[in-house]
Sequence to fold (925 residues):
Amino acid sequence: MKKVLLLAVFVLATATTYAGGYRVSLQGNKSLAMGHTGVAVVSTESMFFNPAGLVHLDNKLNISVGGFGVFSNVAYQNESTGDFARTDSGVGTPIYAYASYAVTDWLTAGVGVYTPYGSGVEYEDDWAGSHLVNNIDLAAIYIQPTVSVKLGEYFSVGGGPIFVTGSVNFNRNLNRTLTDIDGNRSEVTIDASGVTGTGWTAGLMFSPTDKLNIGFNYRAEIILEAEGGEADFENVPNTPLAPFSDTTFDAELPLPAELSVGLAYEFCDKWLFAFDFNRQFWDVYESLDIDFADPNIPDSFNQRNYKNSSTYRFGLQYEATSMFTLRAGYYFDESPVRDGFFAPETPRNDSNNFTAGLTFNVSDSFQIDASFLYSHFEEIDASYDAYFENGQAVPFGGTYKSNAFVPGIGVTYKM
Amino acid sequence: MKNSIKILAGLVAIGLVSCEPEFDNSVEDEGFYSSGTANLTNYVAVGNSLTAGFADAALYITGQQNSYPNIMAQQFEFVGGGEFTQPLTNDNLGGLLLGGNQITQNRFVLSIGANGNPGPVILDGMPTTEITTSATGPFNNMGVPGAKSFHLIAEGYGNVAGVPSGAANPYFARFATSDNATVIGDAVSLNATFFSLWIGNNDILSYATSGGSGVYQQGNMNPATYGPNDITDPGVFANVYNQEVAALADGASGGVLVNIPDVTSIPYFTTVPAQSIPLDAATAGAVNAQFALYNTQVLGGLAQAGFISPQEAAARQINFSAGANFPIIMDDDLTDLTQVLQGPPFNLPAQTAALLGQLRQANNTDLVVLPAASVLGTTPDPNNPLGVVGVSIPLADRFVLTQQEQFRVTAATNSYNQTIQAVALANDLAFVDARTALGQLTIGIPYDGGVLTSTFGTGGAFSLDGVHPTPRGYAYTANLIIDAINNKYDATIPMVNIGNYATVTAANNL
Fold:
């Protein structure tokens, strides 16, 4: 039964992008409801946000499991040609599972599983930007054994190694015009799964008073190195001028480092305010380079040129009754995409995000956590200028409009 | 409680699926683009091979899908345009069958030869488009490859029985609504709200591509007596053109007329240089020795005797030198000296006299047609290595469009174009000066991926037959016409990005 459950979790763990780049900030229903704050909040979701918080949990055993349904859509249009497209994105379902146990009153150990990176965007095949992407499905599952240690009255630390397993499936047309003799557009699908990597996370929590926590957390960069993935070329015309045949490929995809600092302040007995600042070190994502094994096939260089980006998060919690805890939040999410590098596979500009949620205490040991997120993106005129045809840059531009609605549900068991 | 949460979650999920992002001003909204005063709900395109989407010397599905009317119709959909039907052929080989026998060649594709060089070859395969198995017309695309101006109103032009004799057109026979149907009649039966007409190209083109093998039928008002390569009389053209426009414009909200491009600027005439025969000094000298007596004695004597003018005698001098030479050619505008040369004082044998009868060396004003590339410099008789086309065997008349022949083409074209512009003005229709716009391809039209030019093979505008456009060339044409419609009818139909349209098709036969 456990095996089946685990499998189901892995199958479901594809997520649609809705944060900057392909970061998916959905690592807990309690936290999301508060604007995805948590670096200074002590909660059953601290495993992700700041492991240093785990040791402060009241109960010995804490288990939080949950997931989200990501309804994310992108619309594209070009007013000069009339081209338009809508992504046909299925429902992304990022998940999380955290379990921790207080070994002593100063040491807590546990393990977390979560999906902080992923993307699922599907345009209609052969749409106007099909030379850049038809569809992409990217998933990464983080597994994090964790310890959390109290150091005296004011400080605690926590952290652990991270093991990642990821997969990528990406399809695009070879260029804007190449077809087979019957007019079917020539395309390539690259597919790699079971790509692994390792990293680490570490956090510090400082509690100067009963009411105030200050937290720091750092999650290290992990480079997923796909080696020997499958590259499948379809609809290639029979000519030496198009020397494309099925082969393997190597590629690297960075999962950038993230630094979080923040504070949480309890006031008026039942209220909690939290603020997080995240810095994502996206500048590692300079280019998506696909190295095909077949020497006749030119390697694919796709400049991304991302910049580091910040997110500002605000959250509020109110313990309304013994049965209900209510939460709300807001965050501003900066896009790591620079002007002129707006690629339709991650069509993200800055977003304003509104969250709300609640916890229902079914019993002393059992809670249901629910949350809801609405991401608002301004309409944006943008282009990707680093696509080249015979050495000449051919920008792909237009107007994009995105939105995302994310309901989430989870349970927490405490003992 | 648990149940109600489940139900709530379910309802929320259903609601979210339908929450699509909306643009402030969506191109899909009615009214974002306007057809102005034109009604584009039912568009019919009438014309010849260019309208049909013919390319690479054949009509095949992907070519038809990239015909300029089909590209336009897709853009018309933004302003209320309805379905645009085309008589799609059965395959992407392009050849036609009549009773199971192939009657037109398959398309060209760009193939890499054994030597590693690219060149046009005919795509192998048995075509499947049988013209006796009629497609059910009429279609919105009434482009009929090969049609001349007067064919559009000729009854029986679509009668399959007339195809073998050349009295009928195999393409129209496929989709004519009856044996007696006319192209214009079938087009009119669609009750179109908007039309385009691009006709007249073949009235000069077949003359030009055949190296002037036909006759300029100036003054002959009966096109039934014309040969296939003749130039149509401008009066005949004006007469039928007026009839056709009147028939199409009746009941339509508007239309667009397209004039005739300068055919002599297409790659079919500009790719093979006239000065194309490389000779070394020794060979040039040997050949010159053969012509020495002819140059000095024969031509001089003929001029003196008054058979030819001194100017013609000078023009008929044959002289090779080391380097690239002009080939010797047959020019049917020269005085035919075959009989004179057989008589005294020359007494040449009939064969030699025939060879010299209308012979001259080509010059820079001559246009050598594309198919001559596979003939020039060859030795047709393997037993006679000295019989070289262009050096000792004249290049046949059909391979060269001489200056005099070009003048006839230009004169007729100019006359047709005056008619087209005048008819557009008189009927208050949009007008496209394709002659000027396509002429710019010799310089180049910049687009987002480079420059579109008329250079054969690599320029991107013309397909491998050297006459008909590529999809990108047709897209450029579609934009020209859309622009004219926008201007005439205060419309705002969006144009296409020609960089998204393909050029020549590369494929090697298996």
Observations:
- The longest strand of chain A covers residues 187-206.
- DSSP finds three helices and 23 strands in chain A.
- The helical segments of chain A are 2-12, 29-33, 46-49.
